[in-house]
What does this fold into?
Amino acid sequence: MSAYTRSESERRIAGLQQLMKDAGLDGCLVTQNVGIYYLAGSMQTGYLFVPAKGPAAYYVKRSLKRAEDESHVRVVELGSLRRFGGQLEGDYPALFAGNGSAGRPQIGADLDVMPAQQYLRFVEAVPQADWRDASALLRRQRSVKSEYEIGRIEAAARVAAASLEEGLRSLREGMTELELMTVIERKMREAGHIGLMRMRGYNQEIAAGMVAAGESAAVPTYFDGPAGGAGLTPAFPQSSSLRPIRRGEPILLDIGCCIDGYVIDQTRTAAIGRLPDELRRAYGTADAILRRTEASLKPGAVPEALYVQALSMAEDAGLSEHFMGFGRDQVKFLGHGIGLEIDEWPVLARGFTEPLEPGMVIAVEPKFTFPGAGVVGIENTYLLTENGCRALTLSPETLYEMPLDHP
It folds into this structure.
């Protein structure tokens, strides 16, 4: 098991405290397990309180022993939530003594992921504080990765590349999507993939990505991405199905791998035999969009502008209707930040106008959907460097057209 160091935790907490001071917050309560892990190094049930000044405290319900073993911050046994306000006030008397920036302490929280009922319970339990939404602040901090985080994503990229190669070696006409996905996923699991990839979006779930062929890949679904896949059942309407893979149709290999909590995201397109000319042309346009975006992906670039540039290229190619989905089911982005969650900031979409910074990690995924025929595209994950970007994805950037006599 690879865990980051105490000094890394201290740097993260110090960075959050500076952001809190700039935002006029006196404290921040982090309740989501991923956010707690990011700052404290443990993911046990409880809440992490970070004051704008001074040491943080991790209030743990279960398992206290494991939190004490793992956490880089002070661990406190969590009592009754009804008494949490008194527990906080006892641990941080200066903050609750009328010394806050607005008289009453201004406490931020991760309200984008906190259930409404839980928020109301906190308001009742800590009535002496004013509660504010710190979601954007927390997500902004996590958008820039440390060397440790980059190393974990690189490790995931190595596993994903080896697993895709294993899958392509096993590809046979007539095998089902699920059979091919199973080959890839088994290889990843054996190499340390934790078995899931976390998402922050409400009601959004993902397994290890998807393998989907032909019209199955183009089946619309609730998943907030350009292609979701038919899936096995309406109980999980995305990813691979039991449909056999046929020759001459696109096979979308959109896979991710999670090592030590950190995710890589990549997509490649394959076929048994040659793809129809229309789909080959669309794949070429996706590749051109990726290349143009890659050249523009540098510190100072505006995410919104990169998305608009891609829209323009799709329109020039006469493929606007098929870009990032089809019709009403098109998604309105080109790429997304990635790290502990697969849907981190920044997003290459309208409304994201803050310039990119070195250390951001972004997955760029131009894809084209053709109902009844399939989905083609390519996706790489990139690290923003001081002068440009570097691909973390290791799989060859090619359209895999496997010979019909593929052994």
